[in-house]
Design brief:
Blueprint (H helix, E strand, L loop, with lengths): L5 E11 L2 E3 L2 E2 L6 H4 L4 E2 L9 E2 L4 E10 L6 E3 L17 E4 L5 E9 L8 E11 L5 E11 L3 E9 L8 E5 L2 E3 L9 E6 L14 E6 L5 E2 L6 E5 L4 E7 L2 E8 L14 E2 L3 E3 L12 E5 L13 H22 L6 E3 L18 H8 E4 L4 E4 L6 H9 L2 E2 L4 E2 L4 H9 L2 H15 L4 E3 L5 E3 L4 E9 L5 E8 L8 E2 L2 H18 L12 H11 L2 H13 L17 H17 L6 E8 L6 E5 L10 H11 L9 E8 L19 E8 L12 H5 L2 H20 L20
Parallel strand pairs: 6-12, 12-18, 13-21, 14-22, 23-24, 23-34, 34-37, 35-36
Antiparallel strand pairs: 1-2, 1-7, 1-8, 1-10, 3-9, 4-5, 6-9, 10-11, 13-18, 15-16, 15-19, 16-17, 19-20, 25-26, 26-33, 27-28, 29-31, 30-31, 31-32, 35-37
Helix pairs in contact: 2-13, 7-9, 11-13
The chain binds zinc ion.
The site of zinc ion (ZN) has 4 residues, from loops.
Length: 717
């Protein structure tokens, strides 16, 4: 085997009372029983008995999962003996194994000076280097009885440059209502916060399982688990019969002083059986951030809304199909609307506001009128009739019969106008010729034939005259008109409402996002959602605040009103979820809470909900943003986090991933281009639902003790 090498990920030492001692590295693949037999050599001449050349020893047999982020190196292979022989001389030995894998380590420690009734106590020190060159180590307190063997240990070797100790734990998975959760897959991970001062750069995780009794184990029989202290650590359980559940802990530094005989029981982790995961009777508001023709002008970002709303759709579908929530118990805040956008302004940023200066709408009555005397009936007709086509949103030409058709849809109003005009003409012995109101393609105006009475009393034509309208003449905002406005608004939104972002490799964010939206079918989706929110029967709160998508204050009012209404009925609102995506080229998602004090401080339960969500939120599987629950920035306040929103104690506000970051799986595109795709939407929706199920059905009892960094959010996180 000359020339071959083996991979190592670091070294290990054994310490007693803080000093490195000699030990015997052993072959982990030989018989464990053989490792403890003292080695006796045959009597040499002159001796009457064999000589015990090996000290009395205790043996440790340990599985070690090596987390990502450590350096591998190639070294010459070493042949390890199956059992200790001779005097121990080695004080440091290689950790043979690979990053991301679970390795097997065995060594013997000297018991020759140990009282037979005592345990040997010491420290296993694992050391390595990070891929960026920083020295890291993990210290693990160990014990073994006199001449005994310990073989039930698993160590998660997941250091960074600051965290240097592990502590021993045991954890059982129980199902809500009783019984063990057997044979679940368990993902053990260190909370990755992506802050330079915390755990960033890579995921540190290890695969475990539960045994038949629900005990979390490595391999088949290692239930004593060594995990990092002083930092949140998350166990995520996946089991066919249970809703995915996660258990988060944070051990005190002091816990690292305890040995493997004094592991801390950190459970149970409680999982909800799928069959018992009913949320029937629970009520929800899903609030997709931003909107189509968003009423809050300075936050127009339809691309953000699209992902948020698609995720909200999936959350709703999962709540209904897997958790028995009734369709009528899930409301959306109204996040898609339409503008009174003139056909020639389909790409003009200010078009919805320009339209509001010219036209007025009574949405509950579904009618529209001119707002100023300068607006003619032809303007209204053009607004409500013009369709668009093609990639450039070209306005389709209107025919005379299109214009005529508009009159037919508004007969009562036209008749009333004619009656009014007749009233004005009577004194002059003039009138509107009955049935003469029509579209004049030449004049490009609606006209009527004016008649005058001659001396004999006969009516005679006196020329075509423009049909005048007033600001009190209301025309139908019928389904055809709304469909036209919805289509134009959807096109306008894609052209003018995609927010900006930094470039990637010369590619503009807005154009990449727009292309991704169009490829995903956003134009049709926008239209459908506008109609979904507008085609409701009055009276309806969706119709109460104008034609555009609601801004933050209208949404808060909706939460508050619906919460009051449900409370009065004795069925309190269960949860409100706002969905946003971040911008500014960061990494990871976060649940946002208010940075403000006093009345605007987040309620405790809002922070607790955030902590619950942190366990699940990671749609790109690359960690959270700033610890997963964070405060909004004073320079970029989120109004719905403040006291005007009275539902904050049942509220989760997600900023899930950065749209303008680089796709973690494809460096040539923006994250946004992945976020419009089904895998991201599905992952995020399921993560939110897992948090909802836990919060409403089986909240982790001891989550209160788990804090991130200094507990800077109300001492709770
Ligand atoms: Zn947002």
């Amino acid at each position: 085997m000359a020339g071959t090498t083996v991979t190592k990920v670091g070294d290990y030492e054994v310490l007693v009372s803080g000093s490195a001692v000699a030990f015997w590295p052993l072959d982990p693949w030989s018989s464990l029983a053989g490792a403890v037999s003292p080695i006796v050599v045959a009597p040499s001449s002159g001796s009457s008995a064999g000589t015990v050349v090996t000290s009395v020893v205790g043996v440790f047999d340990i599985a070690i999962a090596v987390a990502e982020g450590l350096t591998e190196s190639e070294v010459a292979p070493v042949t390890l003996p199956p059992s200790p022989g001779g005097k121990a001389t080695i004080k440091k030995a290689p950790l043979f194994g690979k990053v991301g894998q679970t390795m097997h380590l065995r060594f013997a420690v000297d018991h020759s000076k140990l009282h037979k009734t005592d345990n040997w106590s010491g420290t296993l020190r694992l050391s390595s280097k990070t891929t960026s060159g920083g020295a890291v180590q993990t210290n693990i307190t160990l014990a073994v009885a006199y001449t005994a063997t310990v073989s039930n240990l698993f160590v998660f070797f997941a250091p960074n440059t600051k965290l240097k100790k592990n502590a021993w734990v045991t954890l059982e998975a129980r199902q809500k209502g009783g019984g063990a959760v057997a044979n679940a897959s368990v993902d053990l991970k260190v909370l990755r916060d992506n802050l330079p001062s915390g755990y960033t750069g890579v995921n540190r995780r290890a695969p475990l399982t539960t045994n038949g009794g629900g005990q979390v184990i490595s391999g088949t029989a290692r239930p004593i688990l060594s995990v990092p202290v002083d930092w949140p650590v998350i166990f995520t359980f996946t089991s066919g019969a249970h809703v995915t559940g996660a258990h988060m802990i944070r051990l005190d530094k002091d816990a690292a002083d305890e040995d493997n005989f004094n592991a801390t029981e950190i459970g149970p982790a409680v999982l909800v059986p799928r069959a018992a995961a009913s949320l029937k009777g629970k009520t929800f508001i899903l609030d997709a951030g931003h909107g189509v023709v968003y009423g809050y002008l300075k936050a127009r970002r339809c691309q953000e809304w699209y992902v948020a709303h698609r995720v909200a759709d999936r959350i709703r579908a999962i709540l209904m199909s897997e958790h028995k929530v009734d369709a009528g118990d899930i409301y959306f805040s109204r996040s898609a609307g339409f503008g009174l956008i003139e056909p020639s302004q389909v790409h003009l940023n200010t078009a919805p506001e320009a339209g509001e200066a010219k036209y007025k709408v009574d949405l509950p009555q579904k009618k529209i009128a001119a707002k100023t005397a300068a607006v003619g009936l032809h303007d209204l007709a053009k607004l409500l009739l013009t369709t668009h086509s093609g990639d450039h949103d070209t306005a389709d030409a209107l025919s005379s019969s299109n214009y005529e058709g508009f009159l037919a849809r508004n007969t009562a109003t036209v008749n009333a106008i004619v009656a009014r005009v007749n009233g004005q003409l009577t004194a002059a012995h003039a009138r509107v010729q009955p049935g003469s109101v029509t579209w004049d393609d030449h004049k490009h105006r609606y006209v009527y034939m004016k008649e005058k009475q001659n001396a004999a009393g006969d009516w005679q034509k006196a020329g075509t005259t423009d049909l005048p309208i007033t600001t009190n003449d209301w025309f139908a905002l019928d389904s055809q008109a709304i469909a036209v406005l919805a289509d134009r608004s959807a096109r306008w939104s894609l052209a003018a409402e995609v927010g900006p972002g930094p470039a990637l490799g010369g590619k503009s964010f807005a154009s990449a996002a727009r292309a991704a939206l169009k490829a995903a079918g956003a134009l049709d989706y926008f239209r459908q959602k506008i109609l979904f929110y507008v085609n409701v029967t009055a009276p309806h709160s969706y119709l109460d605040h104008g034609t555009k998508a609601w801004g933050p204050s209208e949404r808060s009012k909706f939460f508050n009103d619906y919460q009051s209404q449900l409370s009065a009925a004795g069925t309190p609102l269960s949860m409100v979820v706002s969905l946003h995506e971040n911008a500014g080229k960061g990494k990871g998602g976060t649940v946002l809470v208010s940075h403000k004090p006093g009345a605007d401080e987040p309620p405790d339960d809002q922070v607790r909900i955030g902590k619950t969500m942190v366990k699940y939120l990671d749609p790109f599987d690359h960690g959270t943003r700033s610890g997963g629950v964070s405060k909004d920035l004073p320079v970029n306040p989120a109004g719905m986090l403040y006291h005007g929103n009275q539902a904050r104690d049942i509220y989760a506000y997600f900023e899930s991933e950065f749209m303008d970051a680089t796709d973690p799986n494809d460096s040539t595109r923006f994250s946004y281009e992945a976020m419009v795709e089904a895998p991201f939407i599905e992952a995020l929706a399921r993560q939110v639902v897992c948090g909802v199920v836990e919060w409403l059905l089986a909240p982790q009892a001891d989550l209160e003790d788990v804090k991130y960094m200094g507990g800077s959010i109300k001492g709770l996180w």
